[in-house]
């Protein structure tokens, strides 16, 4: 079965958007499988930059069908804005190009308010969420009071579902956070103008469409958001997002069998970044960290926050390979390392005096982890115009070899800039 998962192998922002857009040339269907508009996938096509928060990154290719799976939490206001923006660019002309599962949970403005109130109240212990309402929306799902995408189209059901969803929250808003309460009428009114656009994308038989596509041998790409170390079960809890970011969740979220997946492509940057609070053993709070941020334009595409930057962490990456069953790797932003005299790579942690090379548990342990850094010589050449692997400087090739060998997984794709054409294939991943 030709299902392929593209998963972030670090703390998000690995460049999944670019690589899914590149891979989508070889795909029939691209499915976004978790998270919501906390994600920011930046794509540069013919020099034009598009940032997607919710739409699958295959959407810029008119012949690629795109789908939002039930496990995604959908900010319907943001979704309509993204759809309108794309239409204004002459894209997404055929509404059938995008389908949204009617069992997706919907994010409404009160989810964002709650997310932001909570973060404010946490004060020094903030998670550093994006404030997009992701946590509260997944909480409602688990509490079985979520408003689902399909509920939007029947006003009576919508009103009842909203009333259920806001009952407890209004107590919190009024008595705990001292902020304005919400009314179901307000919510229903605000949703009404969106319905015509949303109805065009409603899918009532989501997993059936996927089953048929997979059975017919169509290539389906499952696009993850955030990254492995932000996974709610296996990441650096509690400094994580509220969904499972791992490859296996592509199946749960979309309603397909694990047997349908035959490749898991892990995407990672040639260095490491993290936004928000939480442990980050290889973080560089110095001129080199600033340089990576500057050269790599490491500012959040959703919140604009500066990203924390550091050396590549092989202990964390090895865990990501295992947790996701990564079969192939894509290394992104290799060009950003040009000009560094030496490049650090974390090959182990020292935790309470013990050398640790393999870790599968990130709870608590990382707080005490001192990174063991090996240095490789850098290179000065600008890589952004390299068109062939043979043109890479010798030291860049050594860096790639070192990382690939340590991870025991092939790096098959290398990205040297944001454009589609700035992609080097070590091995073709898609044979037609
Ligand atoms: P939330 O997903 O908005 O609840 O945020 C929880 C944590 O995940 C915070 O540390 C965020 O900075 C981080 N996060 C959420 N989405 C992304 C992303 O797309 N890239 C990187 N970090 C993210």
Please name the defining characteristics of this protein.
binds inosinic acid; alpha/beta; 432 residues; four-stranded mixed β-sheet; Adenylosuccinate Synthetase, subunit A, domain 2; Adenylosuccinate Synthetase, Chain A, domain 1; ten-stranded mixed β-sheet
Molecular structure report:
The chain is α/β, with parallel strands linked by helices and 432 residues long. It folds into two domains: 3-102 and 204-425, Adenylosuccinate Synthetase, Chain A, domain 1 (3-Layer(aba) Sandwich); 105-199, Orthogonal Bundle (Adenylosuccinate Synthetase, subunit A, domain 2), CATH 1.10.300. Helix content is 30%, strand content 21%. It has twelve helices and 20 strands. It has helices spanning 16-23, 76-88, 109-122, 134-142, 155-176, 184-191, 195-199, 206-215, 248-254, 287-295, 314-324, 394-407; strands spanning 3-8, 29-32, 41-45, 48-52, 65-68, 73-75, 98-101, 105-107, 202-203, 220-223, 261-269, 272-274, 308-310, 312-313, 328-332, 342-351, 354-356, 369-377, 411-415, 423-425. The strands form five sheets. Strands 9-7-5-2-10-1-11-15-19-20 form a ten-stranded mixed beta sheet, with helices on both faces. Strands 14, 16, 17 and 18 form a four-stranded mixed beta sheet that branches. Helix 3 (109-122) crosses helix 4 and helix 5 (155-176) crosses helix 6 (184-191). The longest helix is centred in the middle third of the chain and has 22 residues, at 155-176. The model has no long low-confidence stretch (mean pLDDT 95). It binds inosinic acid.
């Amino acid at each position: 079965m030709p299902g392929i998962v593209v998963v972030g192998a670090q703390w998000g922002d690995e460049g999944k958007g670019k690589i899914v857009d590149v891979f989508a040339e070889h795909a029939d269907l691209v499915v976004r499988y978790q998270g919501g508009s906390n994600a920011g996938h930046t794509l540069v096509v013919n020099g034009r930059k598009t940032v997607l928060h919710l739409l699958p990154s295959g959407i810029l290719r008119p012949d690629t069908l795109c789908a939002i799976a039930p496990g995604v939490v959908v900010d319907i206001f943001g979704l309509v804005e993204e759809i309108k923006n794309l239409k204004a660019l002459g894209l997404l002309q055929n509404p059938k190009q995008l389908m949204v599962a009617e069992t997706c949970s919907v994010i409404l403005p009160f989810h964002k308010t709650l997310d932001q109130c909570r973060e404010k109240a946490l004060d020094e212990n903030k998670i550093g969420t994006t404030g997009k309402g992701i946590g509260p929306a997944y909480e409602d799902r688990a509490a079985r009071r979520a408003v689902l995408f399909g509920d939007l189209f029947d006003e009576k059901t919508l009103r009842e579902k909203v009333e259920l969803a806001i009952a407890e929250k209004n107590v919190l808003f009024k008595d705990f956070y001292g902020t304005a309460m919400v009314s179901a009428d307000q919510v229903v009114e605000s949703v009404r103008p969106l319905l015509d656009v949303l109805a065009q994308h409603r899918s009532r038989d989501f997993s059936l469409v996927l089953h048929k596509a997979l059975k017919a041998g169509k290539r389906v790409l499952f696009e993850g958001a955030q990254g492995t170390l932000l996974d709610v079960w296996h990441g650096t809890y509690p400094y994580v997002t509220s969904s499972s970011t791992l490859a296996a969740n592509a199946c749960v979220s979309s309603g397909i069998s694990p047997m349908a997946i035959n490749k898991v492509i892990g995407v990672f940057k040639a260095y490491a970044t993290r936004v928000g609070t939480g442990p980050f053993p290889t973080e560089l709070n110095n001129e080199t960290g600033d340089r990576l941020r500057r050269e790599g334009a490491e500012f959040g595409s959703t919140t604009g926050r500066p990203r924390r930057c550091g050396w590549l962490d092989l202990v964390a990456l090895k865990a990501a390979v295992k947790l996701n069953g990564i079969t192939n790797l894509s290394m992104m932003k290799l060009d950003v390392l040009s000009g560094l005299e030496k490049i650090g790579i974390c090959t182990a942690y020292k935790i309470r005096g013990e050398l640790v090379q393999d870790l599968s548990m990130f709870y608590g342990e990382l707080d005490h982890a001192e990174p063991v850094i090996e240095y490789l010589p850098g290179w000065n050449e600008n890589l952004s115009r390299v068109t062939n692997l043979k043109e890479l400087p010798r030291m860049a090739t050594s860096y790639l070899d070192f990382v690939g060998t340590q991870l025991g997984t092939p790096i098959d794709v290398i990205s040297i800039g944001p454009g589609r054409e700035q992609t080097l294939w070590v091995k073709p991943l898609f044979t037609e």
